[in-house]
Write a structure and sequence with these properties.
By secondary structure, this protein is of the alpha/beta class. Helices cover about 40% and strands about 15% of the residues. The strands form three sheets. Strands 5-6-7-8-10-13 form a six-stranded mixed sheet. A four-stranded parallel sheet has the order 1-2-3-4. A three-stranded mixed sheet has the order 9-11-12.
Length: about 325
């Protein structure tokens, strides 16, 4: 792929004569459109056909995959896309479709796309740069407590920053499955021990599954997101510290997300040659929209609690003492 191209509204009108930008020559990593110009009516359908991210610059239009308020923002988004162009392209393609599907179908799409990228060169490049890490021991890392009609779910592996290991995944799957099928459970509260809520997937386990088709089958059988979505109307998640990757992708399904004022949020997967794979391509756009989700995932930038609240990623910000009650 060559680097991206910036087109004016007038140039876009000519470009729209071809259904796919691949038909006009070398495929760029991205296409940016000056959104301050008059935009054609066919823009929405054209964007959905493109194999690369389409960025709107300086204006707003629902068709674009991601918005850049100015040229400086465009530069940072473009640089991130050019570093991992395949993951960035797959991300926006999944987001375009996931927002039109029901949650189970959207989760299947996310998992299939994630599996494709697991076998790709960009993820292999990221894996090659990683230090050797020891696998977590198999142990109980999720505590369940029943108090009346409430189920309290606590992540209890602070030594690994409550990373989503296989053990953590299985524990959360069982917890949310119980909450989904037991009608006497009317309230689900999710918390975590230690300095952060969850630092994302357990990096020691990345690259350990070579059979990506089998990995997709396991995600369909064991990932917590599908069960959390079923009991989301009962669920409140209480976040603090770092909430990275799965550490915000799963909580975002909940009916209510309460964050401590020290909470921070980040989606790092595109920089790993992947896309959010714990349900984030489904849960987060339903809270903040497809365009904001794409920008956060492509750039990997960190949100503080205040910005997360302003855009609707979390519903309430509280102090440490208030959340402890």
């Amino acid at each position: 792929m060559k680097n991206g191209v910036m087109v004016s509204g007038e140039e876009l009108a000519a470009l729209l004569l071809e259904p796919n930008i691949a038909d006009v020559g070398d495929v760029p990593c991205w296409v940016a459109v000056d959104a301050r110009d008059q935009l054609p009516e066919r823009l929405t359908s054209w964007v959905r056909q493109q194999p690369v991210p389409v960025i709107g610059v300086g204006g707003e239009h629902a068709a674009f995959d991601v918005l850049a308020p100015d040229e400086g923002s465009l530069a940072s988004i473009a640089a991130a896309i050019e570093t991992n162009p395949v993951a960035s392209a797959v991300l926006v393609q999944v987001l375009r479709s996931a927002c039109t599907l029901d949650i189970p179908q959207a989760l299947q799409l996310e998992s299939l796309a994630y599996g494709v990228l697991q076998g790709g060169a960009e993820h292999a490049r990221w894996l090659a740069r990683q230090p050797q890490r020891s696998l977590a021991s198999a142990e109980d890392v999720v505590r369940l407590e029943r108090v009346g009609d409430a189920l309290q779910v606590t992540l209890t592996h602070p030594a690994r920053r409550n990373a989503l290991s296989t053990s953590m995944r299985d524990g959360l799957t069982e917890a949310f499955k119980l909450a989904a099928v037991d009608e006497t459970i009317r309230v689900v509260e999710v918390r975590a021990e230690g300095p952060c809520f969850c630092a994302g997937g357990d990096l020691a386990e990345f690259g350990t599954t070579r059979d990506t088709a089998r990995a997709h089958a396991l995600r369909q059988a064991r990932m917590p997101a599908q069960y959390l979505a079923l009991c989301a109307h009962k669920c409140t998640t209480y976040l603090h510290g770092a909430c990275i990757g799965a550490g915000i992708e799963l909580p975002a399904f909940a009916h209510r997300v309460v964050a401590r004022s020290d909470s921070t949020f980040r989606l790092p997967e595109v920089a790993m040659g992947l896309i959010p794979g714990a349900g984030g391509c489904v849960s987060i756009p339903r809270r903040i929209g497809r365009q904001r989700t794409a920008e956060l995932a492509i750039t990997g930038r960190t949100l503080d609690a205040g910005e997360a609240f302003r855009i609707g990623l979390v519903d309430q910000i509280v102090g440490a003492a208030e959340q402890a009650r």
